[in-house]
Amino acid sequence: MTEPVHVIRKLEHALADDDFAWSLLLVGEDQTDKLATLTGDLRGPFSTTGDGKQITSGFSYWGIGPTIAWANATKDPFYLVMKTGAESFLRHWRKVRPHVDRRGFHFVSLGVGTGVKDATILDDLYRANPQMFYIPVDMSSEMLRMGTLEPVRGARFPMSQVLPVQLDFSIADNMDELGQMLTRLVGDEPLFYTLTGNTLANFESDEDALRIITRVLRPQDRLLLEVATTTRLDQEAADAAADEYHQTRAFAEFVTSALRYNTDLRIDNDQIDFRGEVETDDALRVKIVWRNNTNEPIRMGLPDHTDVVLDKEDTILLYTTRKFSTERLKKLTTACELTPIEHAHSGFRHTRRPSPFGLDLLLLAPDSSGVVAHTLADDIWSQ
Prior knowledge:
Elements: H1 4-14, E1 26-27, H2 31-41, E2 53-54, H3 64-74, H4 80-96, E3 106-110, H5 116-128, E4 134-138, H6 141-154, E5 165-166, H7 172-186, E6 191-195, H8 206-214, E7 222-230, H9 235-246, H10 249-262, E8 272-279, E9 283-291, E10 298-301, E11 307-310, E12 315-324, H11 326-335, E13 338-347, E14 357-366
Parallel strand pairs: 1-5, 2-12, 3-4, 3-6, 4-5, 6-7
Antiparallel strand pairs: 7-14, 8-9, 9-12, 10-11, 13-14
Helix pairs in contact: 3-10, 4-5, 5-6
């Protein structure tokens, strides 16, 4: 009988057609359950503050419509977080790379995005470990297909070593199952997890989301975390953070796309509010909500062919994002028992006035690793 690895390699050869872009996918969830979850979230109670009905984080990217809208938003030069991230990542990665490029890691990308950053990482890790696996993980199978094409083709990475996984990694049980599957796949060999693009900022609780991810880290594993940051924590800065997202039309199209494709709600841009606030005195939070600013109720059809009534001033939370202070990052890494090994920072450039905003890249190890970084404690945060 043919060994499974031989079947995979034979399949790779069979699909090696440059004129047709085949891709493989390991589906980890029942998609009907995801649709039921989305429908339930849209039945939430009345709220004027975006704390009732909602599109939770992963659903913003779920499906072909939101995936295309996201791809368009990433190309918008007015989307400053994305623009700065693209410009700074290679420079940041060069600072981090010496800590990982000789360890023989397998690469687990949580939230693959456009794949541009994965391509940079994969190219270096593959040269150090030609037998490595590349495991991109995302709730959206469409995002996985779009986001893996560039890193795999750019690095000429063998398809038999690519294992895209459709999974919502914000759910603790899912992450536990993923960790167990990966351990069976690679044994004791180290895993390099990444969570880039400020994805951590999108969850209702950033600490809970980070705990779910770090619970699967073994002493030999590492986590690369990219976050948007701020040096100011006041309402003026919060308003500026909200305006940063408001000024790009492509981003507005993206954040409303999940609602457009999963309901029959007609959306006007003047119904979208970008609300900035100071969160617990150590972060800025931006909540993007749809608001019924008409003088009468609106009936919205849901995916299960039922309706929900949106009363005057009712809201639907479309998207949440944050900018983290240094203190918030210290609290998060301490609470999740993570040791920072390396830290790179870039401020926003090309702005008319000095901006408090920037992007940070952190290489983290579980405390159980026994790693003691040479510049740690408060020194690493001041770099």
